[in-house]
Amino acid sequence: MTKPPKILIVDDEQDTRELFATVLAAEGYQITVAEDGARALSLFKTDTFDLVITDLKMPGSDGLQLLREIRKSGSNADVITATGYGEVDSYISAMSLGAVEYIHKPVRVKELRDIVQLVLKKRKLR
Q1: E-assigned strands of 1-126?
Q2: Residue 56 belongs to a domain with what CATH number?
């Protein structure tokens, strides 16, 4: 039996972390949460993840900085960026740094499930 994919959810908003974690845990994924980029990076030192879902706008280390550090670390985790702000510049930056998806908050539960499922399916095929 294969292990469930490990997903790291990074968001400074507790409600968003809890919603994402609840929805994705119900799908059978192994979930870890972090309240900011610094905490997420410390988790990367002791664990590996298949997927990271990160907010872009957070105090301290934001989502783009986290994405840069994940890529620099050599991790092959896929990264989905999420934001409540519809900024073209952040979309271009996130995608150029290797994000695989960019979603707008508030995210509908079905949309979250579908995007995560698609990203993990593509990952499995690679």
Answers
A1: 6-10, 30-34, 51-55, 78-83, 101-104
A2: 3.40.50.2300
| Cβ atoms 51, 80 nearer than 8 A | yes
69 falls within a domain: yes
pTM above 0.70, yes or no: yes
Give the length of the chain.
Answer: 126
Whole-angstrom CA distances from 65 to 61, 97, 104 are 6, 10, 19
* CA distance linking residue 123 with residue 92, whole number of Å: 22
Amino acid at 89: D
Domain containing 64 equals: 6-125
Confidence (pLDDT) at 1: 64
